[in-house]
Amino acid sequence: xxxxxxxxxxxxxxxxxxxxxxxxxxxxxxxxxxxxxxxxxxxxxxxxxxxxxxxxxxxxxxxxxxxxxxxxxxxxxxxxxxxxxxxxxxxxxxxxxxxxxx
Length: 102
Hints:
alpha+beta; two-stranded antiparallel ribbon
């Protein structure tokens, strides 16, 4: 643990964990723990997923999907990704056509 980190005791689905957390970021970490707990409890209570490891993986997949598709301040990651892929395909095509010139 670095000098600017603190040990923080957290609880995820009834299991205790001690994690290092940078000074001044404890609230954000605790908010993340609350969000994760809610997601995991929702999966457990409304699904057919059994076992904390499987529940954790499903929660991680759901959160990752949210991250990749959420608009943040008008910024849409999914749209950006699609536009980048389109631009990359256009560049590949243009470069391919250029190689035929030489």
